[in-house]
């Protein structure tokens, strides 16, 4: 390299020599790094590979606390309680599993069945995985275990959370229950929580329909685990979100009273606020204790529930579809008046039966009502009168009128399992049976028999609609977390005021005028009087011969063959606030116990007047629109 | 090797001629290394461009622009800018030091427009520039004269102490290494070097002996922060597991379990080399080290072919600076030295390091482009 400065020559020589020395140093360092790489990756590679494989992160889900279900006044209907349980960690049981079980067995009763299950569980899992010895211990048992803990090797007491229904069977059919996750649950739900051992999901009731909201979001604990799954340490934790609390429109006091009043009967009763559709009580008896399903129901208990002829597993209020019988008559009357098929003055001579074609249609009163107009027709529930009304109105008119009051379709209440019932019509019959509609069937439909089927919640809705003159629909869930559930705006029923007034007057006469079918069991407290309509749903066919010989009294028949007893009502008559409907299976007796039940329930509800009491909703549910009627 | 041996000495090259003079082979090599870095950024994000690979890619493109721009500027400009650059960098160091004391938080960063800069990173380049400038005027004999030697020693020690106080042992070490290396290649007498090295080694046990236990503990903790961290030595042992489990050929791209399962600390920055080791094994690591060696070789060659002492010193200083990064980072993640927080140049995620490294390569390239420029020694005497 030519240089322009002679002195620079020595500098350049030095620089070159020293730079080459540095280069040597650099090379040496890089070589040292290479040697270290060789040592790490080639010599010890296999060993480190094993370590890496042992290294893995386990994401353990942390179950969120399930949201509570709360009534309109803040009473907790479903909440979580501490679940005291005792676990066994096999590898820590120094004296062996059997010895550990013997020792703990002196504190907690362990059946041979339990021991077998624990040993099975221990055998199936890794030695450091805890096996459940016993759950749901009392505080005393749990304290005792803790007291003796120093002598109990391998025993680990734990506190978990479990669902609790403080009111037991009272609310079974409203709340439903939680139980272990079924394979079906996992088909439509990819929530990883479902794979968590011991996780519970809502089955039936609000627990099911709002399961996702109640469930909350899972937290995650990231743990370093070795190849055997043993937790080395926690790397991080992301807290989940607890489930939302759900506020119902139910008033636990009214619910409790209703269930108590239904007693041991196989019955269903719904109580509703007619101004907004708030369901205050929804009872189906007998119920069952939902806590059983959470803790684990025994096979005998399950068989008993399944074989009970009072069908405790069925929510009769929603899933029981019955012929409405005479409780359907106000609906037919309203439709006929509104359609102009009759006027309130329309009069019929009832002789106890009506011949139509080849058939004879009987009135429940064998010797007839004599001259009957609409008012008496409803009050005394004259079948012959309504055969005539139905004939004038026609099946199409009945169908349309019934749909207006909510029959033939689910009411949309937020509890799963609601049946739509049946309102027959020409198209319906053609579709189901493939044959045309018969005129005689119109007559039967007019008295709520034949094909007509309705659920108690539909009957209550119809009563509320007649009482309020609005197309009110039942609602049972008011607030989810902090969100008020929107309600559709209340529309006036598309019927004339005159027609509505005539039907209301008839229903008033049922309870409040002598001769009315419920007069004997009316509410006499001034200002609390109820209007209503009785009904009987025939369970067995009554042959022509029996009619001639005299229909057997219900009381003389076996329970299963007796007619169902129904009653719809609202109160007070002047300014209706509450409606109720009841079905008492095989309960048709001359003393009308079901009417007495509704009378008491409506009186109780009015005197308590939950609609006027300030609610405990976490947000101002009243301010969120749709509550006020336009009436 | 050049077709115009004296052209640059006689006249200034045009921009076009300068562009032709740029060593595009080295630029390509740098780009290849940077792409390996981007691939690793992509991998440690679990096979995603975000959050690291994409922004790092943008920075690299900016860095390439800086490299070429710096390369085209006459090396004499950089010589004139050397002392001002040093003064500015030093002032910034003091500024962050004061800011830290005033209580605005122990900031190592300053914000310049949209860019966050670490003055300690700038100082590495500024120190190399300033020392090259100072030593440019010195003959071999001059370098070893005590009074002449005092100035560069102060120039090295002052920023190193400030950086050490931040505390940033890694950068301080690099500053000292850069400075001492430049003195060495400038011809510092062995009569200075050997006794110093000997006395440093000799004094360590003596000083250690006189320290109190708690002071020893502090020193140990300071030298190896991991020992004090939760789960002593966990990070480095996880890094070794990542590296070692890669074996000969690695687990495959985006197949590294250690990084994806977050066993690796700072997997996208200081410990990225271990991810490379895990996924590409011994072969991948050695290949990267060879690429680095090639870059360093280019640097040495450029230094040796410069006609000015300033150019030589600047080129070798920048090259060695690059090397010290690699050396400290690789040794650190392989458990050979304590963890000191130095990134792997061109590979680790991080803006300042990327931009200063590319700026350094720009200076190296400027020396290359202007290798025929002769600078009179006398200019070196003027401070």
Describe what this molecule looks like in 3D.
The complex is a heterodimer of chains A (631) and B (383). Chain A is 37% helix and 19% strand. Chain A is an alpha+beta fold. In chain A, helix 10 (252-262) packs antiparallel against helix 22 and helix 16 packs across helix 18 (439-446). Chain A is elongated. Chain B has one domain. Helices cover 70% and strands 2% of the residues of chain B. Chain B has 17 helices and 2 strands. Chain B has a two-stranded antiparallel ribbon. The longest helix of chain B has 33 residues, at 272-304. Chain B starts with 6 loop residues before the first helix and ends with a helix. Chains A and B meet through helix 1 and helix 2 of A and helix 9, helix 12, helix 14 and helix 15 of B.
Quaternary state of the chains = heterodimer
User: Strand portion of chain B, in percent?
Assistant: under 5%
Please report the number of helical segments of chain A: 22
Helix percentage of chain B: 55-70%
Question: How many beta-strand elements of chain A?
Answer: 21
Q: CATH first level of the largest domain in chain A: which class?
A: Alpha Beta
Could you name the CATH topology of the largest domain in chain A? Beta-lactamase
Uncertain stretches of 5 or more adjacent residues of chain A? 623-631
**Termini gap of chain B:** 34 Å
**What would you call the structural class of chain A?**
alpha+beta
Task: Tell me roughly what share of residues is in helical segments of chain A.
Answer: 25-40%
Strand content of chain A: 15-25%
Report the strand count of chain B.
Answer: 2
CATH homologous superfamily label of the largest domain in chain A:
DD-peptidase/beta-lactamase superfamily
Features:
heterodimer, A: 631 residues, alpha+beta, Penicillin-binding protein 2a (Domain 2), Beta-lactamase, 2 domains, 5-stranded antiparallel β-sheet, 19% strand, disordered C terminus, B: 383 residues, mainly alpha, two-stranded antiparallel sheet, 17 helices, disordered N terminus
